[in-house]
Amino acid sequence: MMRLASSVLAVGLAVAHAEDAAATCPPADFDTIASFDLDSFIAKRWWAQQQMEVVYLPKSQNRCVFADYSKRAPGLLGYEVAVDNHAEDVAPPHKMHDSGKSLLCAKIVDQARGKLAVAPCFLPSFFAGPYWIIDYSEEEGYAIISGGAPTKRSAGGCSTGTGVNDSGFWIFTRQQKRDQALLDKARAIAAKKGFDLSMLNDVDQSECTEDSFQQAAFLM
User: How many CA atoms lie within 13 A of 120 on its CB side?
Assistant: First the structure.
């Protein structure tokens, strides 16, 4: 009887250990993309189809969200990439929130693994927050981006924080119009990486016009 009780206890401990390991955030095998091509990635605009709410991008701005990137001279602070983020209020009159081409910059931390760090261009890169390409296919036209490793445990898996740095989770596509099959594929990849998909909210790209983007660029 004692031997049986010991065996049951051992099995129970092993199961508990396995469950704890599975619930570790980030997962033990978590990693970013391999052999990342930065020049290809920044060549064209990225449209957010789904994204996590963070302090600097509330759900109330989940309309016409896109990102443009371009190479820049590193300068004294060492930032090699210019970042232009655009979003609009969901509610009319759809106020625009556009960072312009000189406010935000990215520093290349590990180019081969798609690890960048983003901050206002005037701040030392010490203050920059991680911006990692988790998976990306130029051929299929999608990218999964995270504000660093998903270290927070949540009901549906792992997530990043919701503050300024170490926060954010996005699924981008090259095409403005949503391709549900492609989005579902990207979501499945993110889930396998351990991300909690319940953190993602839809972005409305259905009524975005180039005129409004040009107006934003003029105002900036």
Answer: 4
